[in-house]
Amino acid sequence: MLKYSVIIADIMPNVTLIDLFAGAGGLSLGAARAGFTIASAVETDPFSLETHTNNFPSTKHLNADISKLSGKYLLEQSGIRKGDLGGIIGGPPCQGFSVIGKKNSEDPRNELFVHFFRLVKEIQPIFFLAENVPGILNPAHNVLRETAFALIKDAYELLPPIKINASDYCSPTIRTRVFFIGYKPEFFKELSQESFASPKNLKPVRVREALEGLPENIRPEWQTEEEGWRRVEEIEHSYFSERITGLIPEGMGHGPSMERYIVKREVSGCLGTRHSPKLELRYGSLGPGKRDAISKSVRLDPRNFCPTLRAGTGPEKGSFQAVRPIHPTKPRVITPREAARLQGFPDWFVFHRTKWHSFRQIGNSVCPITAELLLKQIYLRLLG
Q1: Where are the domains of the chain?
Q2: Which one of 62, 97, 288, 378 is least enclosed by Cβ atoms within 10 Å?
Q3: Local structure of residue 325 (DSSP, 8 states)
Q4: Neighbouring C-beta atoms of residue 255, cutoff 10 Å
Q5: pLDDT, tens digit, for every residue of 204-248?
Q6: Active site positions, annotated
Q7: Which residue(s) pair with 18 in the sheet?
Q8: What is the C-alpha radius of gyration for the chain, rounded to an integer number of angstroms?
Q9: CB 362 within 8 Å of CB 24
Q10: What tens digit of pLDDT does each residue of 27-45 get?
Q11: How big is the CA angle at 65 (ends 180 and 149), to the nearest 5 degrees?
């Protein structure tokens, strides 16, 4: 049977967080499961903000440009006094740093990385965690990083950059990211780069296990939000499945969707994609791990990890959908719900009603299981 449980985090001093560049909420979910309370979330994309609001109804949401926010205003809007904030987390936009993008060191969005650290300096939380792509470590961005770190060097102990592949942290996808973590030593037990080593007691999660219990026979005509709601079957208990089926932090979840999930065991996002018979034939003939020569979609290997899921582009860049992987046993691309599983999101977590925005939100997100494992190490070392 599927099991449903609720985590109620132990209340300790200074464990509230602010999530900057919150997106759909991958970091927020990881933090909530690690024991923190998400006081507020800041995001400029209205569709991601809607998704975050649906899943974090108790959190204060701000549709605001980080570069124009002051620390004083952010604290006021979050209902927090200066000195009472536990941490600031966030993933500043990475397009200018990405090795698959234009790698533009002049991309104005790069400056948002500096603004993250400016807000840390103004607010003075007891720790911070910033996530980005490995390309930010490129020598072309040395000055940018040094400018950001100079803002906080006198008040924080800054750990060396921690490069992490999500597949080493119980997430079923190959997704390498860099985490910058800083903290005020007087509030912590010993905290070091080694504190965030990959857990040795958790077995890796492959595609087959990640997709267990989800419907495989997806009809191409299932295009509306309601048609995307489908029954999910029971799955074998494991660390991963526990985080897929339950572990719902207090105050989280979209009410009507949660009721439907728990009572009827239905999940959203099982939306179909219309393929031509010719394309279905090509997809059906592909072996595991092979790439279709025309669409560039990769056939998922059930015994391996999912390749990094891409986000596609927003309306300012032409609204292009990212290339989606092909289901491991069916001649079709994956559904948003399958993508969510492969990124480590729980079945009760709801995304946008459309495929385009769902895939954008999932592809842009931090894997929440990975985020939980990292933030738990910070939570456990807080001096309460």
Answers
A1: 7-201+367-380, 207-363
A2: 288
A3: P
A4: 9
A5: 999 999 999 999 999 999 999 999 999 999 999 999 999 999 889
A6: 94
A7: 40, 88
A8: 20
A9: yes
A10: 999 999 999 999 999 999 9
A11: 25
List, in sequence order, every beta strand (DSSP E) within the chain.
6-7, 16-20, 37-42, 60-62, 87-90, 127-132, 157-158, 162-165, 176-183, 230-231, 248-249, 266-267
CA distance 380 to 207: 31
Average pLDDT value for residue range 133-145: 92
CA–CA dist 348, 238 (Å, integer) = 17
Q: How confident is the model at residue 93 (pLDDT cuts 50, 70, 90)?
A: confident
Architecture of domain 7-201+367-380: 3-Layer(aba) Sandwich (3.40)
Q: Could you tell me if 40 and 78 are in contact, meaning their C-beta atoms sit under 8 angstroms apart?
A: yes
**Token couple for 314:** 């927003």
Look at residue 108 in the predicted model and tell me its pLDDT: 56
Mean pLDDT, all residues of the chain: 89
DSSP-based helix, strand, coil % in the chain, nearest 5: 35, 15, 50
**What is residue 95's predicted lDDT score, i.e. its pLDDT?**
55
Distances in whole angstroms, Cα of residue 100 to Cα of each of 124, 130, 131, 296 = 34, 21, 17, 15
pLDDT (0 to 100) of residue 363: 92
- The arithmetic mean of pLDDT across residues 147-173, rounded, is 95
For residues 35 and 12, give the distance between their C-alpha atoms in angstroms, rounded to a whole number. 9
Distance CA 194, CA 160 (A): 10
For residue 163, what are its two tokens? 């490069």
User: For the domain 207-363, what is the CATH code?
Assistant: 3.90.120.10
Query: How far is it, in rounded angstroms, from Cα 346 to Cα 253?
Result: 11
Strands (E), 33-156: 37-42, 60-62, 87-90, 127-132
